[in-house]
Q: What sequence folds into this?
């Protein structure tokens, strides 16, 4: 972790014992504020908080980011977590002081487990499931690249493995809590 980053224990305390919605960026999921309001803590990823605000749903308690930087992202949520081990050396002192950091050893374990570079969503599932402490994790907008992302309009798994990430998600989150995932063809 870069010097000066926030201690993850504060994020753990904020999530402890709560019903948590982790909102992915799959366009197959059409979110409504009512759907997420039943959860006590809403976590979005990358441009997800800004897409939500464009749709009128402003609720974002935590934002997980891997490539997007700047004031806009630091102000998008009370808690902001830099997920990828990449580009940490490019962050400013102000950015480092304002964020939590997903631990590099956890990233290395996850990489070894799934056999590919984990996506922000996969890292988010890992981060949250390790810190639930009596809470529950629900996934929305995760279809593992079966539909385009909300902010690119493209299906592009990139360096990630959709099948391995889906298996990992199902190992950490009950299928009944992966909302909107069509399991009939799986």
A:
């Amino acid at each position: 972790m870069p010097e000066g980053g926030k201690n993850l224990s504060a994020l753990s305390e904020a999530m402890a014992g709560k019903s948590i919605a982790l909102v992915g960026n799959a366009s197959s999921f059409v979110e409504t504020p009512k759907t997420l309001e039943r959860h006590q803590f809403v976590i979005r990823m990358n441009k997800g908080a800004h897409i939500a605000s464009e749709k009128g749903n402003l609720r974002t308690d935590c934002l997980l980011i891997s490539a997007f930087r700047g004031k806009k992202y630091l102000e998008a949520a009370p808690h902001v977590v830099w997920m990828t081990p990449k580009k940490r050396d490019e962050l400013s002192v102000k950015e480092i002081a304002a964020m939590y950091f997903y631990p590099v050893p956890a990233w290395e374990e996850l990489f070894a487990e799934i056999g590919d570079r984990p996506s922000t969503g996969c890292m988010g599932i890992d981060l949250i499931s390790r810190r639930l402490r009596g809470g529950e994790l629900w996934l929305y907008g995760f279809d593992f690249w079966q539909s385009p992302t909300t902010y690119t309009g493209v299906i592009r798994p990139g360096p990630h493995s959709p099948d391995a990430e889906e298996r990992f998600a199902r190992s950490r989150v009950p299928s009944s809590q992966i909302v909107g995932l069509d399991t009939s063809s799986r």
